[in-house]
From TrEMBL:
InterPro entries: Alpha-catenin/vinculin-like_sf, Alpha_catenin, CTNNAL1, Vinculin/catenin. Belongs to the vinculin/alpha-catenin family. It comes from the Eukaryota. It comes from Cyprinus carpio. GO terms for biological process: cell adhesion; Rho protein signal transduction. It is found in: Cytoplasm. PANTHER family: ALPHA-CATULIN. One of its GO terms (cellular component) is cytoplasm. Gene3D superfamilies: Alpha-catenin/vinculin-like. This is Alpha-catulin. One of its GO terms (molecular function) is actin filament binding. The keyword Membrane does not apply.
Length: 753
């Protein structure tokens, strides 16, 4: 596409565009305007050319008129933006009128005979009008986007007020009433922030928003049970500490959301991520390889300083008590090799400079290659150490023995045993925190670094909360609420371990150049305490022949997940709802494939059945497809609905299979086989649907004019109504609202023991 009249490709004309919706709204307008401006200077003026120019000019003018009408309506509804929005709308209307006049060239006689300025004779006037139009339209969109930000802030403020009321309640009846209001407010906030997360252009902001929303999702359930425990045992110090930690974490997460959407920090300055080893190596290699283009682009001292900063960060690995002696020696040796190669490079570099060389000499080129190779070898070793450590820890903690021991000791009222197991949990917490820090160093992308930091903070906070919940149970061993509270915190710990397993796969994908850097925030489902078949199926090990059969099925499943990933990568909008849901379904299927290889977190058939039972993402995809086909033509709608029906059947069959209790080795094998076969059926339909939906979406976009549908954009961005479906927990961006409602239903059953 030709260059923008504004002089660059960002279309912002001096205004910072933070969201994709604003940018996508502007792109067709820019395309049409550049068509008018970037014509050949000696364009042959045929009747066909003139009609085309006039048609484009009129389309722009009409679309601007409709767009301005919406902008003026927004201004009337928002008094504080009325003046700015009104001025921007006035300028947009004036620019649209100017473009219409300059393109009013319906005939050759009119174009050449009346001496009036046209797009052919007054190119400067056309460029000026185009710049004014883009600037004013962008300003209207950015101002409208400010209203969305105001809605999020307003929603956050309502949540904060209710949160303070919840913290002060003293009776259970009052708590039930206020928590009901709080739940509805959190649903609204979840949807507003979910839409904002998907709309943000900046990957780091999207990752930070995902982390903050994950905290809010988990803390909502913790807040409920921690508050119930405090009300039931008001004089219990450990219960009070447990509750206060939850409220504090929720406030911090709410504050982080506002920092992201307003692009500010309460402390004044933006918080910079700690520089990881991966980022340091990347920067170092860029500087070294840049010497091929210029020997004077950077100083020798600067390169040496970069290397030393990098070497200092490797101490996080070598100083760790959990790094083996062999690993430590290997890292130190690779650091020494990198230092030596860099020293040799600097010597040859200085020699080339002394000879007034204009480009790198052959000797220097060889040093550049050796230096980059040595630092790449160091990165590979650090990656191997960090991923190996994380994998070992996940295997070590997969049985959750410490959590089970804490629950049992608390239920027995054994404070001494709780203290012993609390010490063990603290050790595990420190191991996991340090491992997350090492993973952050080698993660490979800034969004994954943010996810590692979030995981580190989660383990650091949840560990002490589990201990305080266990202490409360030990003090009140007959309390059902205290037991329920401990269960919730233990589930949060287990959930975070599952997230680490997904994170590990994404980090490996990035390292190997695969799909990991494009994935959104995911978390594996985990067996919950309400699982239907939790006590009816015993774990079973398969014999060699059965494992071979399952391994073949697993390989077919893996190939299908690769097909899904390939189709997903074709999509322009990687944060599209369908892409997000398909990625999650693919990731869950991949964990089943890992099970067939004896890897991953699914260790036994029981784990596999628990995973198969949780299919909410598949049903969310079905709901999304049914909702999306309403505006399609009959032929397209019938095709999508037909495939959606197949998807629904496969999901139901898988869920029925997973919930059906079985006994005996042969029956369990058949159930494993059926679970994987049904999952293959789901992925087969997903692979078929992805390219069809992609083509339909592109077709719909191509049929839309530049800003011909501002009302749709406005409704999408500014709609604050929370539907009945949303309140029932069916929305895709909620914080586990169905689970919240299940807890709400049990609020009135506060035990009297």
């Amino acid at each position: 596409m030709a260059s923008s009249p504004c002089g660059d490709g960002n279309f912002d004309c001096g205004l910072q565009i933070q969201t994709r919706s604003v940018e996508q709204t502007l792109i067709p307008l820019v395309s049409q305007i550049t068509t008018l401006i970037n014509h050949k200077d000696k364009l042959k003026k045929t009747e066909k050319t003139l009609r085309a120019v006039q048609r484009v000019g009129q389309a722009v003018s009409v679309a601007v008129g409709r767009f301005v009408a919406v902008g003026e309506a927004i201004a009337a509804e928002n008094e504080d933006l009325k003046d700015e929005m009104g001025l921007a709308c006035f300028e947009a209307r004036r620019a649209g009128t100017a473009i219409a006049q300059l393109t009013d060239v319906s005939s050759l006689e009119q174009c050449e005979g009346d001496g009036r300025s046209t797009v052919f004779s007054d190119r400067t006037g056309m460029v000026k009008a185009a710049r004014m139009l883009l600037s004013s339209v962008t300003k209207v969109l950015v101002l409208a986007d400010c209203i969305v930000i105001k809605q999020i802030i307003s929603s956050r403020n309502k949540v904060l007020v209710t949160l303070e009321q919840l913290e002060r309640v003293s009776t259970f009846q009052e708590f039930v009433q206020i928590f009901s209001q709080f739940g509805n407010e959190m649903v609204e906030f979840a949807h507003l922030t979910g839409d904002r997360q998907n709309d943000l252009k900046d990957e780091k902001k999207r990752a930070r928003m995902a982390a903050a929303r994950a905290v809010l999702e988990k803390c909502t359930m913790m807040l409920l049970t921690a508050s119930k425990t405090c009300l039931r045992h008001p004089d219990c110090e450990s219960a009070r500490i447990n509750k206060e930690a939850v409220f504090q974490r929720m406030r911090l997460a709410l504050e982080q959301v506002i920092e992201i959407v307003t692009d500010t920090r309460s402390g004044g300055e933006a918080r910079a991520l700690p520089v990881s080893i991966y980022a340091g190596i990347k920067d170092f290699k860029v500087k070294v390889e840049g010497l091929r283009d210029s020997l004077y682009c950077v100083s020798c001292e600067a390169v040496a300083a970069l290397l030393e900063a990098l070497m200092e960060k490797t101490e996080d690995f070598t100083d760790s008590a959990y790094t083996s002696h062999e690993q430590r020696e290997t890292i130190i040796q690779l650091c020494q090799i990198t230092r030596q190669e860099t020293k040799q490079l600097i010597n040859t570099w200085r020699h080339a400079q002394s000879l007034k060389a204009k480009e790198a000499t052959d000797e220097m080129e060889l040093s550049i290659l050796k230096t980059c190779q040595s630092v790449s070898d160091l990165r590979r070793e650090l990656h191997r150490v960090a991923v190996g450590r994380a994998t070992e820890l996940l295997k070590l903690h997969s049985d959750h023995l410490v959590l089970q021991a804490l629950k049992a000791s608390g239920g027995d009222g054994n404070l001494e045993a709780v203290a012993d197991y609390a010490g063990t949990l603290n050790e595990h917490k420190e191991q996991l925190v340090e491992t997350c820090r090492l993973l952050c160093h080698i993660s490979g992308t800034e969004p994954l670094e943010i996810t590692c930091i979030h995981a580190e903070e989660t383990f650091r906070v949840i560990g002490p909360q589990i201990i305080s919940a266990a202490q409360t149970l030990a003090l009140h061993p007959t309390s059902k609420i205290a037991k329920e509270n401990l269960d919730v915190f233990c589930e949060a710990w287990e959930s975070q371990l599952c997230d680490i397993a997904i994170l590990l796969k994404e980090i490996n994908d990035v390292f190997e150049g695969r799909r990991g850097d494009k994935k959104t925030y995911l978390s594996l489902p985990r067996p919950g305490k309400h699982s239907a078949n939790l006590k009816t199926v015993k774990a079973a090990k398969l014999d060699a022949e059965e494992q071979t059969t399952i391994a073949k099925l697993g390989l077919e499943l893996c190939l299908l997940t690769s097909d899904v990933d390939s189709e997903v990568e074709r999509w322009d909008e990687q944060d599209h709802e369908m892409v997000r849901l398909c990625q999650i379904i693919s990731s869950m299927a991949y964990s089943m494939y890992l099970f067939t290889r004896g890897e991953g977190l699914l260790k036994t058939t029981l784990d596999l059945f628990h995973q198969a039972e949780v299919r909410q993402h598949s049903f969310s995809l079905i709901g999304f497809l049914i909702e999306s086909v309403r505006s399609l033509l009959d032929e397209d709608r019938i095709l999508i609905l037909s495939e959606t029906e197949k998807l629904s059947d496969a999901c139901q069959q898988l869920q029925v299979c997973a919930k059906t209790p079985v006994q005996g080795k042969s029956a369990i094998f058949q159930k494993v086989d059926s679970s994987i076969q049904n999952t293959k059926g789901i992925l087969t339909v997903v692979v078929y649907l992805l390219p069809i939906c992609y083509k339909l979406i592109r077709k719909c976009k191509s049929e839309c004019s530049c800003v011909a549908s501002p009302q749709h954009w406005r409704e999408k961005q500014l709609n604050t109504t929370v539907s009945e479906e949303t309140l029932n927990g069916n929305g895709s961006n909620g914080f586990g609202v169905k689970s919240l409602e299940q807890h709400m239903a049990s609020l009135t059953f506060l035990e009297s023991k």
